[in-house]
Amino acid sequence: MLAAAVLIMAGCGGTEKAADPGIADGTYVASFTTDNPMFHVNEANQDKGILTVRDGKMTIHVSLQSKKIVNLYPGLAEDAKKEGAELLEPTTDKVVYSDGYEDEVYGFDIPVPALDEEFDVALIGTHGNWYDHKVVVSDPIEGDDIQAVISGDASGDSAAVSDIADGEHTVDVTLEGGTGRASVDSPAVIRKNGDQIIAVITWSSPYYDYMIVDGKRYEPVNTEGNSVFEIPVASFGTPLEVVADTTAMSEPHEIEYTLRFDPASIK
Q1: Is the N or C terminus of the chain more exposed, i.e. has fewer CB atoms within 10 Å?
Q2: What is the pLDDT of residues 106-144, one digit of tens each?
Q3: Phi/psi class of residue 116: alpha, beta or left (left: φ > 0; alpha: ψ in -120 to 50)?
Q4: Nearest residue to 12 via CA among 84, 104, 110
Q5: Which is it for the CA torsion 87, 127, 243, 147, positive or negative?
Q6: pLDDT confidence of 236, banded at 50, 70, 90?
Q7: Do the Cβ atoms of 93 and 8 come closer than 8 Å?
Q8: 4-151 belongs to which CATH class?
Q9: pLDDT over 90 for what percent of the chain?
Q10: For residues 72 and 62, what is the distance between their CA atoms, to the nearest angstrom?
Protein backbone atom coordinates (compact mmCIF):
# COMPACT_ATOMS: atom_id res chain seq x y z
CA MET A 1 0.00 0.00 0.00
CA LEU A 2 1.34 3.41 -0.92
CA ALA A 3 0.27 6.35 1.15
CA ALA A 4 1.07 9.55 2.96
CA ALA A 5 2.87 9.57 6.27
CA VAL A 6 2.29 12.52 8.56
CA LEU A 7 4.50 13.25 11.57
CA ILE A 8 2.54 14.12 14.66
CA MET A 9 5.55 14.47 16.91
CA ALA A 10 9.09 15.41 15.92
CA GLY A 11 12.55 15.59 17.40
CA CYS A 12 14.59 13.28 19.55
CA GLY A 13 17.84 13.00 21.37
CA GLY A 14 21.17 11.80 20.02
CA THR A 15 24.56 13.28 19.31
CA GLU A 16 25.24 14.24 15.72
CA LYS A 17 28.71 13.96 14.25
CA ALA A 18 30.01 16.99 12.40
CA ALA A 19 30.67 16.20 8.76
CA ASP A 20 31.12 17.73 5.34
CA PRO A 21 27.87 16.54 3.77
CA GLY A 22 28.70 17.75 0.29
CA ILE A 23 25.24 19.28 -0.12
CA ALA A 24 23.87 22.64 0.95
CA ASP A 25 22.01 23.22 4.18
CA GLY A 26 18.35 22.47 3.75
CA THR A 27 15.70 19.77 3.80
CA TYR A 28 15.68 16.79 1.47
CA VAL A 29 13.78 13.58 0.84
CA ALA A 30 16.37 10.80 0.91
CA SER A 31 16.45 7.01 0.71
CA PHE A 32 17.10 5.05 3.91
CA THR A 33 17.99 1.40 3.30
CA THR A 34 19.13 -1.27 5.74
CA ASP A 35 20.67 -4.74 5.78
CA ASN A 36 17.59 -6.43 7.24
CA PRO A 37 13.92 -6.53 6.13
CA MET A 38 12.81 -6.46 9.78
CA PHE A 39 14.30 -2.97 10.20
CA HIS A 40 13.03 -0.63 7.52
CA VAL A 41 10.98 2.44 6.77
CA ASN A 42 7.20 2.07 6.92
CA GLU A 43 5.83 0.93 3.56
CA ALA A 44 3.84 4.16 3.29
CA ASN A 45 7.11 5.99 2.71
CA GLN A 46 8.85 3.49 0.40
CA ASP A 47 12.29 3.66 2.06
CA LYS A 48 12.17 7.47 2.22
CA GLY A 49 12.88 9.81 5.11
CA ILE A 50 13.36 13.54 5.66
CA LEU A 51 17.05 14.50 5.67
CA THR A 52 17.96 17.77 7.39
CA VAL A 53 21.35 19.34 6.69
CA ARG A 54 22.45 22.15 8.96
CA ASP A 55 25.92 23.52 9.84
CA GLY A 56 27.74 20.46 8.50
CA LYS A 57 25.51 17.98 10.33
CA MET A 58 22.98 15.63 8.78
CA THR A 59 20.00 13.95 10.44
CA ILE A 60 17.35 11.81 8.80
CA HIS A 61 13.89 11.24 10.26
CA VAL A 62 12.36 7.89 9.35
CA SER A 63 9.00 6.40 10.30
CA LEU A 64 9.38 2.68 11.00
CA GLN A 65 6.86 -0.10 10.41
CA SER A 66 5.57 -0.43 13.99
CA LYS A 67 6.33 0.30 17.65
CA LYS A 68 8.39 -2.85 18.14
CA ILE A 69 11.73 -1.01 17.94
CA VAL A 70 11.92 1.11 21.09
CA ASN A 71 15.40 2.68 20.86
CA LEU A 72 18.18 3.17 18.34
CA TYR A 73 21.86 3.91 18.88
CA PRO A 74 24.15 5.55 16.28
CA GLY A 75 26.91 2.96 16.58
CA LEU A 76 27.45 -0.62 17.69
CA ALA A 77 25.28 -2.63 20.06
CA GLU A 78 28.18 -3.22 22.45
CA ASP A 79 28.53 0.53 22.91
CA ALA A 80 24.78 1.04 23.26
CA LYS A 81 24.83 -1.25 26.30
CA LYS A 82 27.43 0.84 28.13
CA GLU A 83 26.47 3.08 30.99
CA GLY A 84 25.85 6.63 29.83
CA ALA A 85 25.21 5.71 26.20
CA GLU A 86 22.94 8.31 24.57
CA LEU A 87 20.12 6.36 22.99
CA LEU A 88 17.83 7.76 20.29
CA GLU A 89 14.31 8.09 21.65
CA PRO A 90 11.30 7.46 19.42
CA THR A 91 8.75 9.92 18.17
CA THR A 92 5.16 8.87 17.54
CA ASP A 93 4.39 9.18 13.84
CA LYS A 94 1.00 8.85 12.20
CA VAL A 95 0.87 6.99 8.89
CA VAL A 96 -2.11 7.04 6.55
CA TYR A 97 -2.25 4.27 3.96
CA SER A 98 -3.78 4.50 0.50
CA ASP A 99 -6.89 2.61 1.62
CA GLY A 100 -7.51 5.22 4.32
CA TYR A 101 -6.30 3.07 7.22
CA GLU A 102 -4.41 5.09 9.84
CA ASP A 103 -1.81 3.79 12.27
CA GLU A 104 0.71 5.11 14.76
CA VAL A 105 4.31 3.93 14.54
CA TYR A 106 7.64 4.92 16.03
CA GLY A 107 9.97 7.24 14.16
CA PHE A 108 13.56 8.25 14.87
CA ASP A 109 15.94 11.12 14.08
CA ILE A 110 19.19 9.40 13.12
CA PRO A 111 22.53 11.20 12.72
CA VAL A 112 24.04 10.60 9.28
CA PRO A 113 27.85 10.71 9.09
CA ALA A 114 27.99 10.55 5.27
CA LEU A 115 25.80 9.98 2.25
CA ASP A 116 26.09 6.83 0.11
CA GLU A 117 28.20 5.04 2.72
CA GLU A 118 27.24 2.30 5.17
CA PHE A 119 27.21 3.21 8.84
CA ASP A 120 26.27 1.41 12.04
CA VAL A 121 22.92 1.71 13.77
CA ALA A 122 22.02 -0.60 16.66
CA LEU A 123 18.46 -1.25 17.76
CA ILE A 124 16.67 -2.68 20.75
CA GLY A 125 13.18 -4.12 20.54
CA THR A 126 10.43 -4.88 23.00
CA HIS A 127 12.22 -8.10 24.05
CA GLY A 128 15.20 -6.13 25.35
CA ASN A 129 17.89 -7.43 22.96
CA TRP A 130 20.32 -5.21 21.06
CA TYR A 131 21.12 -5.92 17.40
CA ASP A 132 23.69 -4.42 15.03
CA HIS A 133 22.67 -3.20 11.59
CA LYS A 134 24.15 -1.36 8.63
CA VAL A 135 22.21 1.46 6.97
CA VAL A 136 22.78 3.73 3.99
CA VAL A 137 21.30 7.17 3.30
CA SER A 138 21.36 8.16 -0.37
CA ASP A 139 19.68 9.95 -3.28
CA PRO A 140 18.67 13.25 -1.61
CA ILE A 141 16.04 15.27 -3.46
CA GLU A 142 15.45 18.81 -2.26
CA GLY A 143 12.10 19.24 -0.51
CA ASP A 144 10.08 17.82 2.36
CA ASP A 145 7.24 16.00 0.59
CA ILE A 146 7.94 12.28 0.60
CA GLN A 147 4.76 11.42 -1.26
CA ALA A 148 5.57 13.86 -4.07
CA VAL A 149 8.89 12.10 -4.58
CA ILE A 150 7.23 8.68 -4.51
CA SER A 151 4.69 9.76 -7.12
CA GLY A 152 7.36 11.37 -9.27
CA ASP A 153 5.93 14.86 -8.91
CA ALA A 154 8.95 16.34 -7.12
CA SER A 155 11.88 18.08 -8.74
CA GLY A 156 15.26 16.39 -8.82
CA ASP A 157 16.32 13.03 -10.25
CA SER A 158 12.91 11.41 -10.00
CA ALA A 159 11.23 10.88 -13.37
CA ALA A 160 7.49 10.50 -13.83
CA VAL A 161 5.77 8.55 -16.57
CA SER A 162 4.81 11.82 -18.29
CA ASP A 163 8.51 12.71 -18.71
CA ILE A 164 9.17 9.76 -21.05
CA ALA A 165 8.29 9.56 -24.74
CA ASP A 166 6.09 6.75 -26.00
CA GLY A 167 7.98 3.74 -27.31
CA GLU A 168 10.65 1.32 -26.13
CA HIS A 169 13.53 2.41 -23.92
CA THR A 170 16.08 0.92 -21.53
CA VAL A 171 16.88 1.81 -17.92
CA ASP A 172 19.49 0.64 -15.43
CA VAL A 173 17.93 -1.34 -12.59
CA THR A 174 19.29 -2.82 -9.36
CA LEU A 175 17.77 -5.31 -6.95
CA GLU A 176 17.94 -5.22 -3.14
CA GLY A 177 16.62 -7.63 -0.53
CA GLY A 178 16.42 -11.35 -0.02
CA THR A 179 19.66 -13.23 0.58
CA GLY A 180 21.58 -11.06 -1.86
CA ARG A 181 22.20 -13.96 -4.25
CA ALA A 182 19.46 -13.05 -6.71
CA SER A 183 19.80 -10.30 -9.31
CA VAL A 184 17.97 -8.93 -12.35
CA ASP A 185 19.30 -8.08 -15.79
CA SER A 186 20.36 -4.48 -16.28
CA PRO A 187 19.63 -2.45 -18.28
CA ALA A 188 15.98 -3.51 -18.45
CA VAL A 189 13.62 -2.82 -21.35
CA ILE A 190 10.74 -0.45 -20.60
CA ARG A 191 7.76 0.23 -22.87
CA LYS A 192 5.81 3.49 -22.65
CA ASN A 193 2.27 3.69 -23.99
CA GLY A 194 0.31 6.76 -22.96
CA ASP A 195 0.12 6.91 -19.18
CA GLN A 196 1.53 3.42 -18.66
CA ILE A 197 5.07 2.13 -18.47
CA ILE A 198 5.84 -1.58 -18.41
CA ALA A 199 9.27 -2.82 -17.28
CA VAL A 200 10.59 -6.19 -18.43
CA ILE A 201 12.31 -7.77 -15.42
CA THR A 202 14.54 -10.77 -16.10
CA TRP A 203 15.70 -12.67 -13.02
CA SER A 204 18.96 -14.56 -12.55
CA SER A 205 16.94 -17.71 -11.77
CA PRO A 206 14.23 -19.76 -13.54
CA TYR A 207 12.48 -20.51 -10.24
CA TYR A 208 10.36 -17.37 -9.74
CA ASP A 209 6.76 -18.31 -10.50
CA TYR A 210 4.99 -15.02 -9.75
CA MET A 211 5.56 -11.42 -8.62
CA ILE A 212 3.31 -9.09 -6.63
CA VAL A 213 3.41 -5.35 -7.37
CA ASP A 214 1.05 -2.95 -5.57
CA GLY A 215 -1.00 -5.90 -4.41
CA LYS A 216 -1.50 -7.36 -7.92
CA ARG A 217 -0.07 -10.72 -8.96
CA TYR A 218 1.90 -11.06 -12.22
CA GLU A 219 2.80 -14.35 -13.93
CA PRO A 220 6.02 -14.93 -15.92
CA VAL A 221 5.77 -14.20 -19.66
CA ASN A 222 8.14 -17.04 -20.63
CA THR A 223 8.24 -20.81 -20.13
CA GLU A 224 11.95 -21.50 -20.65
CA GLY A 225 15.09 -19.98 -19.19
CA ASN A 226 15.29 -17.47 -16.36
CA SER A 227 11.97 -16.03 -15.18
CA VAL A 228 10.81 -12.92 -17.03
CA PHE A 229 8.01 -10.62 -15.87
CA GLU A 230 6.36 -7.52 -17.28
CA ILE A 231 5.35 -5.20 -14.44
CA PRO A 232 4.07 -1.61 -14.23
CA VAL A 233 6.32 1.23 -13.06
CA ALA A 234 4.75 4.48 -11.84
CA SER A 235 7.95 6.56 -11.63
CA PHE A 236 11.72 6.33 -11.67
CA GLY A 237 14.31 7.44 -9.13
CA THR A 238 12.18 6.05 -6.29
CA PRO A 239 12.28 2.46 -4.99
CA LEU A 240 9.65 -0.04 -6.10
CA GLU A 241 8.72 -2.60 -3.44
CA VAL A 242 7.85 -6.00 -4.90
CA VAL A 243 7.33 -9.56 -3.74
CA ALA A 244 8.64 -12.51 -5.74
CA ASP A 245 7.78 -16.14 -5.06
CA THR A 246 10.55 -18.69 -5.55
CA THR A 247 10.18 -22.45 -5.90
CA ALA A 248 13.93 -23.06 -5.51
CA MET A 249 13.50 -24.01 -1.83
CA SER A 250 11.83 -27.09 -0.36
CA GLU A 251 8.58 -25.12 -0.33
CA PRO A 252 7.51 -22.03 -2.32
CA HIS A 253 8.61 -18.89 -0.51
CA GLU A 254 7.62 -15.25 -1.01
CA ILE A 255 10.54 -12.82 -0.70
CA GLU A 256 10.41 -9.03 -0.42
CA TYR A 257 12.66 -7.11 -2.82
CA THR A 258 13.26 -3.51 -3.83
CA LEU A 259 13.82 -2.54 -7.45
CA ARG A 260 15.63 0.73 -8.10
CA PHE A 261 15.51 2.34 -11.54
CA ASP A 262 18.06 5.03 -12.43
CA PRO A 263 16.23 7.88 -14.23
CA ALA A 264 19.50 9.32 -15.55
CA SER A 265 20.15 6.08 -17.47
CA ILE A 266 16.91 6.04 -19.50
CA LYS A 267 17.65 5.80 -23.23
Answers
A1: C
A2: 999 999 999 999 999 999 999 999 999 999 999 898 888
A3: left
A4: 110
A5: negative
A6: confident
A7: yes
A8: mainly beta
A9: 36
A10: 12
Other C-beta atoms closer than 10 Å to the C-beta of 244 total 28
For residue 121, the 8-state DSSP code is E
127 within 8 A of 16, measured Cβ to Cβ: no
Q: Which CATH class is domain 159-265?
A: mainly beta
Tens digit of each residue's pLDDT (9 = 90 or more) over 166-185: 888 988 888 887 777 788 88
Please determine whether the domains at 4-151 and 159-265 fall in the same fold group of CATH: yes
- Amino acid sitting at position 233: V
Q: Strands of 57-63's sheet, edge to edge?
A: 4-7, 91-96, 102-111, 57-63, 48-54, 26-34, 130-142, 119-125, 69-73
Dist. CA 32–CA 96, nearest whole Å: 19
Beta pairing, strands 48-54 & 240-246: unpaired
> Would the pLDDT of 255 be above 80?
yes
